[in-house]
Design goal:
Layout lengths: L1 H25 E9 L3 H14 L17 E4 L11 E4 L2 E4 L10 H9 L4 E3 L3 H4 L2 E4 L4 E4 L10 H19 L2 H16 L15 H8 L9 H7 L4 H15 L8 H9 L6 E3 L4 H11 L2 E3 L4 E7 L2 E6 L4 E9 L9 E3 L9 E13 L15 E4 L9 E9 L2 E8 L5 H7 E16 L17 E3 L10 H22 L21
Parallel strand pairs: 1-2, 1-12, 2-9, 6-15, 10-13, 12-19
Antiparallel strand pairs: 3-4, 5-8, 6-7, 10-11, 11-12, 14-17, 14-18, 15-16, 16-17
Keywords: FAD, Flavoprotein, Glycoprotein, Oxidoreductase, Signal
Protein name: Prenylcysteine lyase domain-containing protein
Family: Belongs to the prenylcysteine oxidase family.
C-alpha cells in the first residue's frame, strides 16, 4: 500500500514547488511602473531616460543611473492612449488627439528625434471655407475657395476677401482675441525655459502660478473674453464654434482651457503622418521601456518599500515608483491605502466618421457642393451635432466626413444629415475633462512616498503638449525626490539646461 501511494506524494510535492516557483516568477521587481501608454506615460519614460542616462539613445545599464528599469502598462492592444486612428476606404484618419500647435516644442522635438514625418492638419484653403449653423440656417459663411489650379494671385485675393468678411462681422474683437491667445502662449512658453530658471513643481497650482496662468483657471472663458474687450457677438458665434469643436463644451469652460482651445484654431497646425499615436509608440521604444499591452492594472498597494501592482493577467509587479499616466475618473483601480481625489468627470465626445455625401436639402442648399467644408454650430438646443468637416474628397459625391456630437449619433439622425452613407464608424471617446471654473486640481503626489499622477494637470488644459509638459515636470520631481532619499547610490544628474528644445530648426 505504501509503495503504491508514494508516487502520488512525490507528484504532489513537485507540483507544490512548481506552483511556488511560478508564483515567485510572477512577481517582478522594477524601478518605475507607469500605468498608461499615451503621450503622458510615453513622455515620462523618455524624460526619465533622457535625464538619467549618459547615452539616452542606448539606455543600457552601463550608461544609465540606477533608474534603468521602466515598465508601461496599457489595457488596450496598441499604445497611444487617446491618440488613435480609424481606417476608412483605405485611408487613415485621426480619431483622438488630432492636431499639434506649431509652438508645441516637445511634440516637435519628439517627431524630429523619432524621424516621424508630419503634414499640415488640413488644406488651408478648404479649411478657411466654413459656416456657422444655428439649427435652421447659416448665420455666417466664408467664401467658397477657388479651384486648386487657380493662380497665386487669385488665392491671395480669396484669402483677403475672407479676412474682410470676418472683420466686417466681428471688427477689432478679432485682434483682441488674438492678443488674448498670444498672451496665454507667451506664458505657456515659460515651461520650456532652462532648468536653472524653472523649478520642479509638486502641485498643479504651483506650476500654474509660476507661469502666470493660474488666474485663467478661476473664471470662465466668457468672463475672461468680456474683460479682454471682445464683443458678445464674437463670443457667442466664432468663439463658441471653436470651443464646441475642440472641447465639445461652451464658453463656460475655464479661461485657460478656452484659450488653449482658441489656439487650436491657429494656422500651422500639424499631425504625424499615419497617426499621432506614433509619437507614443516611438518614445516607448526609444526609451527602452518594457511595454505590456492588453494588461490592465486592477489594484495598487503600498507594501514596505514597494508598490505592488496586480494586473488583469494575474501578474504582480513590485515597483519602487508608480506613476498614473491616464485619467482616473472612469477607472476602477483599487488603491491601498486609499487616495483622495476631487470629484471630476470626463467629457465624452461622440465621433462619427461617414463616407458618403451630406444631405444638401437639410442645410437648405440645392447641391452638395454648396455646403462649407467645415460646419460649426452655435450653443442652441436644436442642433444635434457640434461640427461636421470634410476629411477627404474622392469626388463631388463621395467624401469622408468627421462629425462631433455630445450624444450618440443614431441611424435616424445620420439618415437626416446624409443622403448617402457607404461606411460609418462610431467612437465614444472619454476625451478630456469637463472643464468648470474655478478648477480644483488633483494632487500630483498621491501619497507621501512615490505614487504620482501626471493627469492632474489635465484639468488646466488637455492636449498632447500639455501632457508632455506635465510629464517632464513629474520626471524631474521623481528624480529630485529619489536623489534626496538615495544614500550610497550614484547621484542622479539632471542636465543644467533644456535649451535644445527651444533651439530646434523649425
Amino acid at each position: 500500500m505504501e509503495l503504491n501511494q508514494s508516487p502520488p506524494r512525490l507528484n504532489l510535492t513537485l507540483l507544490f514547488f512548481f506552483l511556488l516557483l511560478s508564483s515567485l516568477q510572477a512577481t517582478t521587481d522594477t524601478n518605475i511602473c507607469i500605468v498608461g501608454s499615451g503621450i503622458a506615460g510615453s513622455s515620462l519614460a523618455h524624460f526619465i531616460k533622457h535625464f538619467t542616462c549618459t547615452d539616452p539613445q542606448n539606455p543600457n545599464p552601463g550608461s544609465c543611473s540606477w533608474i534603468d528599469d521602466i515598465r508601461i502598462f496599457e489595457r488596450r492592444a496598441v499604445p497611444g492612449g487617446r491618440m488613435a486612428t480609424v481606417t476608412i476606404a483605405g485611408d487613415t484618419f485621426e480619431a483622438g488627439g488630432s492636431i499639434i500647435h506649431p509652438k508645441n516644442f516637445h511634440a516637435l522635438r519628439f517627431a524630429s528625434m523619432l524621424n516621424l514625418s508630419h503634414s499640415p492638419e488640413s488644406d488651408e484653403e478648404s479649411d478657411s471655407w466654413f459656416g456657422i449653423w444655428d439649427g435652421s440656417r447659416f448665420v455666417f459663411k466664408t467664401l467658397q475657395p477657388p479651384p486648386s489650379w487657380s493662380s497665386f494671385v487669385v488665392k491671395k485675393i480669396y484669402s483677403l476677401l475672407n479676412s474682410l468678411l470676418l472683420f466686417r462681422r466681428y471688427g477689432f474683437s478679432l485682434i483682441r482675441m488674438n492678443g488674448f491667445v498670444q498672451g496665454m502662449l507667451d506664458r505657456f512658453l515659460l515651461y520650456y525655459k532652462g532648468f536653472e530658471a524653472r523649478p520642479v513643481f509638486e502641485t498643479v497650482d504651483e506650476m500654474l502660478k509660476w507661469s502666470g496662468l493660474y488666474d485663467l483657471t478661476r473664471r470662465t472663458l466668457g468672463e475672461e473674453l468680456i474683460d479682454a474687450g471682445l464683443s458678445s457677438h464674437l463670443i457667442s458665434e466664432l468663439v463658441t464654434v471653436v470651443t464646441r469643436i475642440n472641447y465639445g463644451q461652451s464658453v463656460s469652460i475655464s479661461g485657460l482651457a478656452g484659450a488653449v482651445s482658441l489656439a487650436g484654431s491657429d494656422s500651422g497646425l500639424w499631425s504625424v503622418d499615419g497617426g499621432n499615436w506614433k509619437l507614443a509608440a516611438g518614445l516607448i521604444n526609444y526609451s527602452g521601456a518594457k511595454l505590456h499591452l492588453n494588461e490592465e492594472i486592477n489594484s495598487i498597494s503600498h507594501e514596505g518599500v514597494h508598490y505592488v501592482l496586480n494586473s488583469s493577467k494575474g501578474n504582480s509587479y513590485k515597483c519602487e515608483v508608480t506613476v498614473i499616466a491616464t485619467p482616473l475618473d472612469e477607472l476602477s483601480i483599487a488603491f491601498t491605502p486609499s487616495i483622495s481625489l476631487p470629484n471630476r468627470r470626463l467629457h465624452h465626445t461622440y465621433t462619427t466618421f461617414v463616407r458618403g455625401l451630406l444631405n444638401f436639402e437639410y442645410f437648405g442648399f440645392k447641391h452638395a457642393s454648396e455646403i462649407p467644408a467645415l460646419i460649426g454650430t452655435l450653443e442652441v438646443p436644436d442642433v444635434p451635432f457640434s461640427s461636421i468637416s470634410i476629411l477627404k474628397k474622392y469626388d463631388e459625391e463621395d467624401m469622408t466626413y468627421k462629425m462631433f456630437s455630445r450624444g450618440p449619433a443614431d441611424d435616424s439622425l445620420l439618415d437626416q444629415l446624409f443622403s448617402v452613407r457607404k461606411e460609418t464608424v462610431r467612437i465614444d471617446w472619454p476625451a478630456y475633462p469637463h472643464f468648470k471654473a474655478p478648477e480644483v486640481f488633483a494632487p500630483i503626489l498621491l501619497d507621501d512616498r512615490h505614487l504620482y499622477y501626471i493627469n492632474s494637470f489635465e484639468n488646466a488644459a488637455s492636449t498632447i503638449e500639455t501632457s508632455a509638459v506635465a510629464a517632464e515636470n513629474v520626471a524631474r520631481l521623481i528624480i529630485s525626490r529619489l536623489e534626496k532619499l538615495a544614500s550610497g547610490s550614484p547621484t542622479i544628474k539632471i542636465p543644467a539646461s533644456n535649451d535644445e528644445i527651444l533651439h530646434l530648426d523649425l
